[in-house]
Amino acid sequence: MNTSKENTLDTLHRCLANKRRRMILYYLHRTEDGVASLDDFVDYIVSQEANSSAPDSTRVAIALYHKHLPMLADCGLIDFDRRTETARYSPDSTDDYARALLDSQEAELAKEFS
Question: What pTM did the predictor assign?
């Protein structure tokens, strides 16, 4: 395998290694048009993590805006508009391996976040 492809795979796996980033993708996948706002993500993640140590919505929003959404955008899994604070699911922009990996994880994500 060439180094460029290995770097791409490493980056993709790093993107999917974080639970909140998987939650974002799952949420976008479930929306009718594949679009959601930062507030939508925050509400969803806070509700999903409510059983844990009650996450602070402001901290969740900051982490999503500055870390998780940009990383998913850098991986090509979403389009993130910082100005409007919206994200769009963009599986068409990912390569075949990324699509296959996300598809294979769909059932696991549904079980984990439903």
Answer: 0.79
